[in-house]
Amino acid sequence: MAATGFNHVTVYGDDVTELVDFYTRVFDLERVQAPNLGVPAAWLRCGDGQLHIVRRDTDAPRYHHFALTVDDFEAVYRLARADDLFDEHLAPDDGLPIFELPDGSVQMYLRDPAGNLIEVDWPTAATLDNAVTDQIVDRSDEHPQSEAQAQAELFVDS
Questions:
Q1: How many contiguous H segments (helices) and E segments (strands) does the chain have?
Q2: Model pLDDT for residues 35-70, shown as the tens digit of each residue
Q3: How many other β-carbons are positioned within 10 Å of the β-carbon of residue 80?
Q4: CB distance 25 to 8 below 8 Å
Q5: CA 143 to chain centre
Q6: Neighbouring residues of 93: CB distance < 8 A, sequence distance ≥ 6
Q7: For residue 123, which of 35, 40, 92, 136 sits 20 to 30 Å off, Cα-Cα?
Q8: Cβ atoms 68, 46 nearer than 8 A
Q9: pTM of the full predicted structure?
């Protein structure tokens, strides 16, 4: 018996409407019908999966996160910069939290209005504008990689 894929991720917050507005505005997710769960909830389509937003009175964990691959990393970067959405805990001392992994892929970390951490991924730094690449920190400079670790790939072929 084997898992065949991810179906959904659930995030909590105290204002479902605010979170729906955030995810539809920043990531262009599409709202789909959710069942009655006994608490306010919304479901958003993301590719073949879904993001479920549920009203709960709980703080978001600091480092627990989910990752989204986007079709325009630079547009999300510009919006995140304009709206100050970057996670301050993961930012380098002198910059914004955009990191390059050993395989050349990049990731940045944002917070939604409820404090949930979102990793935004892009397959290769080589395709990005200098305004973005100038903000990138090489993870290998911060954390030396073994030979095996240097072979890690964020985007694996199916």
A1: 4, 9
A2: 999 999 999 999 999 999 999 999 998 889 999 999
A3: 22
A4: no
A5: 21
A6: none
A7: 92
A8: yes
A9: 0.92
